[in-house]
Write a structure and sequence with these properties.
The protein is mainly α. It folds into two domains: about 130 residues, Arc Repressor Mutant, subunit A; about 45 residues, no CATH class. The protein is built from seven helices and six strands, in the order ββββαααββαααα. Strands 1-4 form a two-stranded antiparallel ribbon. Strands 2-3 form a two-stranded antiparallel ribbon. It has a two-stranded antiparallel ribbon with strand order 5-6.
């Protein structure tokens, strides 16, 4: 866990609000977990976020989650050991902060480390942005709204006595809509 690749650095598939430990497929088509970050990549992402402004662990989790549109949020169990490592490496340092949360800022050594890895870091952030764009395309708000409308209409309509003919008519409308959506290009 010391190098930022604990359980929270895995993702794929559909996700809950926090943790995001879904399933993907490996190279052989078997279902398994897929890493978002390899090796020191999470360290670089955290370092760049801290370079933008001093941050604490949960702020870093939120920043990554926002950047990916909720598709990925590393767990505290992977963030905090990585922050400890970055601090041990002299790339970040703890700052005075109000409250009990540790606030970290980048050090001159951290800035130099970032400067040496600009292209790699830009690629990592492009990957995070692509995750967010994919999530927005595949889980768009308008689709969620329409699905919610359908659900509410069904709940209201099915709440009372529904005769068999009406039930079959509702099923037919839903099946027709599904077929039309399937044929869209």
């Amino acid at each position: 866990m010391r190098f930022g690749m604990g359980y929270g650095a895995w993702t794929g598939g559909h996700h809950s609000r926090r943790g995001h430990h879904g399933m993907g497929e490996d190279g052989e088509g078997r279902r398994g977990r897929r890493r978002v970050f390899d090796g020191g990549e999470l360290r670089l992402v955290l370092l760049r976020l801290i370079a933008e402004q001093p941050r604490h662990g949960y702020d870093l989790i939120r920043a990554i989650e926002e950047r990916t549109g909720g598709a990925y949020a590393p767990s505290p169990g992977v963030i905090y050991p990585t922050l400890t490592l970055l601090d041990d490496m002299g790339l970040i340092g703890e700052q005075q902060s109000e409250g009990s949360k540790k606030l970290f800022a980048i050090t001159p050594a951290g800035e130099a480390h970032l400067a040496e890895r600009v292209d790699e870091i830009d690629g990592l952030f492009a990957r995070l942005d692509a995750m967010g764009e994919h999530r927005a395309r595949t889980e768009g708000g308008s689709i969620r709204r329409a699905m919610g409308n359908l659900r509410q209409v069904l709940v209201n309509r099915m709440g009372g006595d529904v005769d068999e003919d009406t039930l079959h008519a509702i099923v037919q409308v839903i099946d027709e809509a599904a077929q039309k959506i399937e044929r869209l290009k």
